[in-house]
Structure formats: structure tokens, C-alpha cells
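User: Just a sanity check before I run the rest of the batch. Below are the C-alpha cells for the first item. I only need the designed sequence back.
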């Protein structure tokens, strides 16, 4: 099966949110575990949607606090395997080496 990976990256938005805030319950994000996301995607035959974010990124923080928790997105929860990758964490370096992100 060909692995499909979608990356979400936006660059500008106001900063209102604590950097430690994780995506809300509307979408079932897997936090910082690419291997688990790949296994789940293969088992469920779904593409992976990646939220590659950084604590210093205002847009990332905005998305995590106001967009991803929006109940209107819940209907899309089963369409993807949702992966959240903190680009500042050393443990995510292999993911970033394979899928470089420029911001």
C-alpha cells in the first residue's frame, strides 16, 4: 500500500495560546509518535494528516487552541489518522529528516 502523508503548515496568526496546549478532542491526534500513526494508517487504510508545529509558532498555537478543537471538524475525524509532531522535540528528528519542513 502506498503511504499517503499530508502536512499542514500555516505561517501567520495571532498568538493567544499557551504553547503547551494540545489539539482538542474533536480530532483524535496521535502526539509525537510517527511509528504508531503509520501502523494505524496501514491497519485502517487511511492517509495520515500531520500537524507539524512548534511552540514558538503563533499560527500553530492558534490552530491547536481554536481550530482543531472545533466541533465542526469532528465529522472528519475518521477520514485520516491525525498526527501531531512537535518540530522542536529531539525525538522527532527522524521524522523531520524524512519530511523536511521549512518555515
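Assistant: Here's the designed sequence for the first item:
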Amino acid at each position: 500500500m502506498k503511504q499517503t502523508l499530508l502536512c499542514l503548515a500555516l505561517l501567520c496568526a495571532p498568538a493567544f495560546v499557551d504553547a503547551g496546549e494540545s489539539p482538542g478532542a474533536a480530532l483524535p491526534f496521535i502526539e509525537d509518535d510517527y511509528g504508531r500513526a503509520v501502523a494505524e494508517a496501514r491497519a485502517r487504510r487511511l492517509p495520515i494528516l500531520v500537524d507539524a508545529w512548534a511552540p514558538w509558532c503563533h499560527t500553530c498555537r492558534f490552530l491547536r487552541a481554536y481550530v482543531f478543537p472545533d466541533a465542526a471538524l469532528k465529522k472528519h475525524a475518521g477520514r485520516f489518522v491525525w498526527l501531531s509532531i512537535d518540530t522542536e522535540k529531539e525525538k522527532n528528528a527522524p521524522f523531520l529528516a524524512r519530511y523536511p519542513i521549512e518555515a
